[in-house]
Design brief:
The protein is an alpha/beta fold. It has an eight-stranded mixed sheet, with helices on both faces. The longest helix is centred in the last third of the chain and has 45 residues. It starts with 5 loop residues before the first helix and ends with a helix.
């Protein structure tokens, strides 16, 4: 297939979704001049630049504040819901377990290849039923050489992604999809260390959820031993998202904005809905909503994958800008026809897309505007104006909204940290105002990139943080024991 079908396979990876479901793809529309598409994006960004005008009248201010409170309140309500009970353990004998495929897209990850393979091969799953596919970019000779240095593995296939089309992770994943042999397929990142029992736990979640559940999302947890203040808040944010918000959304049967790693799919359904969108730089969130539009559900399940948080502001900014740019793409694609979205995904899909995805973007964009108004009032006080003349009703409301946003975000993160057994790290949440400011910088940077280079993928740096050693597991290793070892190492 690779030798004789490289060209059609590459074409399928890049344009397959666009041809089958053009209204669900973020690809440039066929026949439209690139300059016209650029102008359309620029006009959309110009409308966003007019956001300050919202604060010029009470109605606009009220709508903006309602958006802030709805976004924070939605996440807080989801976080407060009791997580679903773990799915029953898989009862079938190992010889009856299905073939399970693990796909990893790699780019400039030569140093991560050996630890990644050790973590995958520590999965408590029969080796003869495990199918591993690594997808590497054509110019990444160092990663290809690192794979070649490994001992031969009959269950490992290495693919080279085509050079055509956008250089994105979803395109690389699409390259692997025709070669997936498993009934189920899991996606991991280069730095991931999944719990050894994760594949079995995913099968239990699929069996418990029934055929309507097409995807199950594991929890992502940061295991850095070296930290910056930014990585500590990133850790708290991840805990809130994956250990509090997503489980709560699962209880409400809402579409999940999936994480980019440790999501497990029914392979047949993944092919049915068109795979990943190679032109969307947060293909995971987009795919969560596309599954809902096809009548399928995604749920979180009780397993964990350990990841590395960015240490440097530059690395964090590039990653977060890409995420926010992709959320802009996702919102734009699925809101092209709101009536069709409502008909296919229902009120749950409409609510989640606008409150979770749209809310995350707009609150980050509006946040500095609220701060500016409040800061202007403080400057006027400093120059001798009276408190009564400066602190009007709207300024007070802005201040309360900002405080509620910081407090709500910190509360969600603290709930997640508590469920992860790390509540003692919660005092770092006092720096939440600074983190919100960083989010705003990333959002405005993402808006500029959305106009000028919407499909550009900014690579996240890995291997910079000091992490605990990879814990390997033999047959029947206890997840609880592994968690205990990680907790002891983290405390140390």
């Amino acid at each position: 297939m690779l030798r004789h079908g490289a060209a059609p396979l590459a074409d399928l990876a890049v344009f397959g979704l666009q041809r089958r479901f053009p209204k669900l793809s973020a690809a440039p529309r066929q026949g439209r001049h690139p300059a016209l598409a650029l102008l359309q994006r620029a006009l959309g960004a110009a409308l966003v630049m007019l956001l300050p005008l919202l604060f010029a009248n009470p109605v606009g201010s009220a709508l903006s504040l309602l958006l802030f409170l709805s976004f924070v309140g939605f996440r807080l309500v989801a976080a407060l819901v009791t997580p679903p009970a773990p799915a029953p353990a898989l009862q079938a004998a190992p010889r009856d377990w299905p073939i399970y495929t693990v796909v990893v897209a790699l780019y400039r990850e030569a140093s991560s290849v050996a630890p990644l393979l050790r973590a995958i091969e520590a999965l408590d799953y029969p080796r003869e039923q495990l199918d591993v596919i690594l997808v590497v970019e054509p110019d990444d000779t160092e990663t290809l050489a690192a794979i070649a240095r490994l001992a031969p593995r009959p269950h490992l296939l290495t693919l080279v992604a085509p050079g055509s089309g956008p250089r994105t992770k979803p395109k690389a994943l699409n390259c692997a999809l025709p070669f997936v042999r498993g009934t189920y397929v899991a996606v991991f990142d280069a730095e991931d260390r999944p719990d050894p029992g994760q594949l079995r736990a995913a099968l239990g979640a699929f069996a418990d959820g029934g055929p309507a559940v097409a995807c199950v999302q594991a929890s992502l947890c940061i295991d850095n031993l070296s930290h910056s203040w930014l990585s500590r808040l990133f850790t708290a944010e991840y805990a809130g998202q994956f250990d509090a918000v997503l489980p709560g959304m699962s209880r409400f049967a809402l579409p999940l904005p999936l994480g980019g790693s440790s999501n497990h799919f029914r392979t047949a359904v993944l092919r049915e809905v068109g795979g990943w969108d190679p032109f969307n730089v947060t293909e995971d969130a987009d795919l969560g909503f596309r599954l809902a539009r096809f009548g399928y559900r995604a749920i979180s399940f009780d397993s964990v994958t350990y990841e590395e948080a960015p240490l440097r502001f530059g690395a964090w900014l590039r990653q977060r800008s890409r995420w926010m740019k992709g959320w802009m793409q996702t919102w734009g694609v699925h809101m092209r026809d709101p009536r069709t979205l409502w008909r296919e995904a229902g009120w749950r899909g409409m609510l989640t897309l606008n409150f979770v995805v749209g809310g995350a973007i707009l609150t980050a964009l509006l946040h500095p505007l609220l701060l500016t108004d409040f800061g202007y009032a403080l400057v006027r006080l400093y120059h001798g104006e009276t408190l009564a003349s400066v602190i009007g009703p709207m300024t007070l409301v802005y201040a309360l909204t900002i405080a509620a946003s910081y407090g709500g975000s910190a509360a969600v993160a603290l709930i997640g940290l508590s469920r992860r057994g790390r509540a003692w790290q919660g005092w770092w949440l006092l720096l939440m105002p600074g983190y919100w400011l960083c989010l705003s910088i990333a959002a405005w940077r993402a808006l500029g990139q959305f106009v000028l280079m919407p499909h550009h993928w900014e690579k996240t740096e890995h291997g910079l943080a000091r992490r605990e050693a990879v814990v390997t597991a033999g047959k029947g290793a206890s997840s609880a024991k592994l968690m205990a070892v990680r907790a002891l190492t983290d405390s140390a």
